């Protein structure tokens, strides 16, 4: 006898982490979990996918040199105290550690998390998701890349435990992904992508 079909709870209904993980094992599409709410994930635009692909082409070789791994889109990340289960656009980890309480397993020790933002996701990526992400003990950087214009925003955890914010719209800028030891030319991230460029 197969598992019951996934039934998305009403938006106002509280769902426990255990119930979410059980529901997710039978779901045909991915859903995120934040503080008791289950949210269906929408499809991505070509620009979103191109930016994410370009970034991974740059950081992939560096991660392999350091014995680390990168994951795109389908790797679920577990926030601290199981307050969130999220699917970043890109996540990098060294010595990956997984919580195998559900299938697929959830990554618990990311060093770098990347979200490619749009008008419909930017507010959630900036506030709700970052609130959950920044309480993951292993996390050192959170990068947001706009899918609508050349725009990169980075939060970097310093040695005093402060999240330092930097941003740029300069296509000639080089992002310092110090968490994985990788400089990233912004021009290569946006190469071939149809987005607005600041003059």
Explain how this protein is built.
The protein is an alpha+beta fold. It has one domain (46-189): tt1808, chain A, CATH 3.90.1570.10. Helix content is 23%, strand content 30%. The chain has a six-stranded mixed sheet, sandwiched between helices. It has a four-stranded antiparallel sheet with strand order 2-1-5-4, with helices on both faces. Strand 7 and strand 8 (106-107) form a beta hairpin. The chain starts with 16 loop residues before the first helix and ends in a 10-residue tail after the last helix.
What are its keywords?
199 residues; 4 helices; globular; 23% helix; tt1808, chain A; disordered N terminus; 14 strands
Write the layout of secondary structure elements.
Layout: H1 17-26, E1 31-34, E2 37-40, H2 46-65, E3 68-72, E4 77-78, E5 84-86, E6 90-94, E7 98-99, E8 106-107, E9 112-117, H3 122-133, E10 141-146, E11 152-157, E12 163-168, E13 174-177, E14 182-185, H4 186-189
Parallel strand pairs: 9-10
Antiparallel strand pairs: 1-2, 1-5, 3-6, 4-5, 6-9, 7-8, 10-11, 11-12, 13-14
Mean pLDDT: 90
SSE sequence, one letter per element: HEEHEEEEEEEHEEEEEH
Q: Number of DSSP helices?
A: 4
Main pleated-sheet profile: 6 strands, mixed
Secondary-structure-derived class: alpha+beta
Give the N-terminus to C-terminus distance in angstroms: 61 Å
**The CATH class:** Alpha Beta
How helix-rich are the residues, as a percent range?
10-25%
Strand content: 25-35%
At CATH level 3, the topology is tt1808, chain A
Under CATH, the homologous superfamily reads tt1808, chain A
What sort of overall outline do the alpha carbons produce when their principal axes are compared?
globular
CATH architecture: Alpha-Beta Complex
State the domain count. 1
């Amino acid at each position: 006898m197969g598992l019951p079909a996934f039934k998305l709870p009403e938006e106002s209904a509280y769902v426990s982490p255990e119930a979410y993980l059980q529901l997710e094992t039978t779901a045909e599409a991915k859903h995120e979990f934040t503080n008791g709410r289950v949210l269906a994930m929408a499809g991505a635009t070509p620009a979103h996918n191109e930016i994410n692909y370009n970034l991974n082409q740059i950081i992939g070789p560096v991660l392999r040199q350091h014995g680390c791994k990168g994951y795109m889109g389908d790797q679920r990340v577990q926030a601290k105290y199981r307050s969130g289960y999220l699917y970043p656009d890109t996540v990098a980890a060294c010595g990956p550690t997984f919580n195998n309480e559900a299938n697929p397993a959830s990554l618990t020790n990311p060093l770098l998390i990347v979200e490619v933002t749009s008008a419909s996701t930017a507010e959630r990526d900036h506030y709700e998701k970052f609130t959950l992400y920044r309480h993951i003990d292993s996390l050192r950087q959170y990068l947001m890349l706009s899918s609508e214009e050349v725009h990169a925003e980075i939060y970097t955890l310093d040695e005093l435990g402060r999240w330092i914010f930097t941003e740029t719209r300069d296509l000639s800028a080089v992002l310092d992904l110090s968490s994985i030891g990788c400089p990233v030319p912004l021009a290569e991230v946006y190469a071939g992508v149809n987005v607005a460029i600041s003059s």
